Amino acid sequence: MDLRNLLFTYRSFTPVPIVLAILYFSDPSVPFIYFGLGLVSIGEFIRINAVQYAGGATRTTKVGAPSLCTAGPYAITRNPLYLGNMIIYCGISLVAGGQFMWELLLIVFAVFSFQYSMIISLEEDTLIDLFGNEYELYRNNVPRLFPRLSPWHNQDFRKPTPFLKTLKIEKRTLQNISLMLFILFARYYWGLSA
Question: For residue 42, is it left (φ>0), alpha (ψ between -120 and 50) or beta?
Fold first, then answer.
């Protein structure tokens, strides 16, 4: 099996070892808690905004898309969900604090950069097959991950999904973030550390 397919298939589980290390070595402290919560909020805002435009199609086990979404945050970066994820995990690393906070932050950034570059490569090959020149034009105008300063003007005029419907789609991610933060704050409150 292609490594890209493997990483795509198990993308929900590959962060587990990192999350366990973050939780194990955590020792939250101010001001990093506040900086981290800010990053988590920014990352989740990016994710919710992306899901409002792409919908539930982002929760798939198969590479591909029913249509090419280039509206909303997709006019700024081709992969806002992955960007949001990276920001969330970096934020969780800061909230966690601890003696290895900076090392874990670097590992989070490096691992997700590698994983998402592999997954994006696979998705791009598929999207070129599905959408041809339309995707090539999009790819030539919108950066892969790190956003452009202004939205790319294109012909995708879709409207965002209502916020409450989006929250239902994003429920699993919100539950995971809440669980991680609960564990970190429980350790902080009760003074438990590695």
Answer: alpha
Q: What whole-number distance in Å separates Cα of residue 169 and Cα of residue 139?
A: 26
Q: What does the alpha-carbon distance between residue 53 and residue 166 come to, in Å, rounded to a whole number?
A: 9
pLDDT at residue 17, as a whole number: 94
Three-class SS state of 154:
coil
CA dist 60 → 12, 23, 48, 146, 182 (Å) = 11, 28, 16, 23, 28
Global pTM? 0.91
Using only the alpha carbons of the chain, give its radius of gyration.
Answer: 18
Residue 32 sits in which domain range?
Answer: 3-190
For residue 112, give the CATH number of its domain. 1.20.120.1630
Residue in this structure with the two tokens 């965002």, named with its chain if needed: 160
CA distance 166 to 160: 9
What's the whole-number mean pLDDT along residues 7-32?
91
Q: Which two tokens stand for residue 173?
A: 């991610």
- Cα–Cα distances in Å, from 185 out to 41, 44, 88, 102, 130? 16, 19, 16, 19, 45
The answer to whether 98 and 194 are in contact (CB under 8 A) is yes
The average confidence (pLDDT) of the chain is 91
User: In the chain, how many domains are there?
Assistant: 1
Angle, CA of 127, 141 and 50, to the nearest 5° = 65
pLDDT in tens, 59-111: 666 777 888 999 999 999 999 999 999 999 999 999 999 999 999 999 999 99
